[in-house]
Write a structure and sequence with these properties.
Elements (H helix, E strand, L loop, with lengths): L8 H12 L7 E5 L4 H17 L3 E8 L4 H18 L3 E5 L2 H8 L3 H19 L4 E3 L4 H14 L3 H4 L5 E4 L2 E4 L7 H10 L16 H14 L5 H30 L1 E3 L2 E5 H5 L3 H13 L10 H12 L5 E7 L2 E6 L2 E6 L9 E4 L5 E6 L4 E8 L12 E5 L7 E4 L6 E3 L6 E3 H7 L12 E3 L5 E4 L3 E2 L12 E8 L7
Parallel strand pairs: 1-2, 1-4, 2-3, 4-6
Antiparallel strand pairs: 5-6, 7-8, 8-11, 9-10, 10-11, 12-16, 13-14, 14-22, 15-22, 16-19, 17-18, 19-20, 20-21
Length: 482
């Protein structure tokens, strides 16, 4: 399916580059050239642009995969000759795909792609290039969209390949994405450009080849414009997906905050979002969790979403795989990577004898401060983030530690002793926060104060108190917390 005359190909690429800012004068571009008609056309189109229309520095990059030894050798030599004729620097690498497949456990196509992209990025770094140009065209795009559709992809997958994408500080560009293979073959014939044919492209054992040779022709019986239709779908979905990503990021900025490496948001606010934004918000947060970023699907996202919409139970936990955990804690939703969380017990000694001091506790996510003062400055504060103690009644030194099983406390204002666990439940302290809440104890281990929660009856300030130790607790905002 060709729509562009050979004489108009360069102008069409120039117009696309101008409309989408693919490059600027003087830019360096690594051109991936396999030796097939698509990449041969791309190299010559960019060369003509660099000579006639705009100064560009091109580097021809070729990967010798070694799958077909004799053919691969011939392809490499043909690309080398082509680059020499155009007076363009030539870079080549021989890769051992089978060895990498064995090492990584990946299939041949994925392994070859990873090695190819690694080489292209290395070449871009060597030449300080701003761009890597790929020869993907409209037929490739149609195959990609259909392949993603068969996999059950959402809007991002149906958007297909992008004209431009930032990767490792280099811009990947696809100047031929709005053209079709027939246009490029006709361009090569018109300019008498030789190219090679990859015999592996005729093997139906690869899914993409099967899509191209079997599925698209079959579906084309019902729509003669199937390939252009799939390309229009990709373009439409790309624009709409970009809009949704911006909208989701705005919702994230408004609703989500980080607390001790946990992504938290109000369930009530979440329920007010349209369903599309609910799903995207969950997916966005899960993508921030490195342990599970490659293991997302609709079912997993929808499971979290529907659980958050349920009124009961008020607390639950979902294992999302790879270390990712989804939790509901009363009116808050929490998503976190348990492998990155605070683990184990911790304990600090507090020397409160100096006039003042402070201790930063990364495990607890805050800073505890103290100073010695005199009554009445040290009267009991009105909030739970501060506490005053009769210095003469304290058994020093003090310690601050994490919660231990069986902890109990004589709570000020209550008769008798109460389990710390029950105090947390009564105060609706989220379960995932309980291990990081500090516990202040005296020398004998008696709990004096749970900062931010409750104070004990011990060492209470009285009228006759002459020396007071005033303590305060300040939670630190985690990175990304607003």
């Amino acid at each position: 399916m060709g729509t562009t005359k050979p004489t108009g190909v360069v102008q069409e690429v120039l117009a696309l580059a101008r409309d989408h800012s693919l490059w600027s004068p003087g830019d360096r571009i690594v051109v991936a050239v396999s030796g097939g008609p698509d990449s041969v056309a791309l190299l010559h189109i960019l060369h003509e642009i660099s000579v006639v229309h705009m100064p560009l520095r091109l580097i021809c990059a070729h990967v010798h995969h070694g799958f077909r030894p004799e053919e691969s050798d011939a392809e490499a030599e043909e690309v080398r000759r082509m680059a020499r004729k155009l007076e363009i620097p030539f870079e080549m690498i021989r890769v051992d795909v089978p060895a990498y497949m064995k090492e990584s456990g990946k299939g041949s196509q994925v392994a070859a792609r990873e090695l190819r992209y690694a080489f292209l990025h290395d070449t871009a770094a060597k030449w300080a290039a701003q761009h890597i140009a790929m020869a993907h065209h409209g037929d490739d795009q149609a195959e990609t969209v259909l392949l993603h559709l068969l996999r059950g992809s959402g809007p991002a997958g149906l958007a297909g390949m992008r004209l431009t994408r930032k990767e490792k500080n280099v811009q990947l560009i696809r100047p031929l994405l709005r053209m079709y293979k027939a246009d490029l073959i006709e361009f090569c014939k018109f300019h008498d450009l030789s190219y090679v044919t990859d015999s592996s492209n005729l093997s139906s054992k690869y899914r993409r080849n099967s899509i191209r040779m079997d599925v698209l022709p079959f579906l084309g019986q019902y729509n003669e414009q199937l390939t252009p239709s799939l390309n229009r779908l990709a373009e439409t979905m790309a624009d709409e997906n970009d809009f949704m990503e911006v909208s989701t990021l705005a919702v994230y900025e408004e609703l989500v905050h980080m607390d001790n490496s946990r992504y938290m948001f109000s369930i009530a606010s979440f329920r007010k979002l349209p369903v599309a934004l609910q799903r995207r918000l969950i997916k966005l947060i899960l993508n921030y969790l490195p342990s599970d970023s490659e293991n997302l699907d609709f079912r997993k996202i929808e499971t979290v979403r529907l659980r958050l919409l349920q009124e009961q139970p008020s607390t639950w936990s979902l294992d999302l795989g790879g270390g990712a955990v989804g939790v509901r804690e009363y009116d808050q939703a929490v998503l976190f990577d348990r492998t990155q969380g605070v683990m184990g017990a911790w304990c600090y000694g507090l020397d409160v004898l100096p006039i003042s001091g402070e201790l930063e506790m990364p495990e607890a996510g805050g800073i505890i401060r103290w100073r010695r003062t005199s009554y009445p400055d040290g009267q009991n504060p009105p909030n739970e983030e501060e506490a005053c103690f009769d210095a003469d009644e304290l058994a020093l030194p003090l310690t601050v530690r994490s919660r231990l099983p069986g902890d109990t406390m004589y709570v000020m204002g209550l008769n008798g002793r109460k389990k710390v666990k029950d105090i947390f439940i009564d105060e609706k302290i989220p379960p995932s926060l309980r291990p990081v809440i500090p516990i202040v104890c005296d020398r004998s281990g008696v709990i004096l104060w749970i900062p931010g929660v409750r104070r004990s009856v011990h060492a209470a300030v009285q009228k006759h108190t002459s020396s007071v130790i005033y303590m305060s607790w300040q939670r630190q905002e985690s990175p990304g917390h607003r």
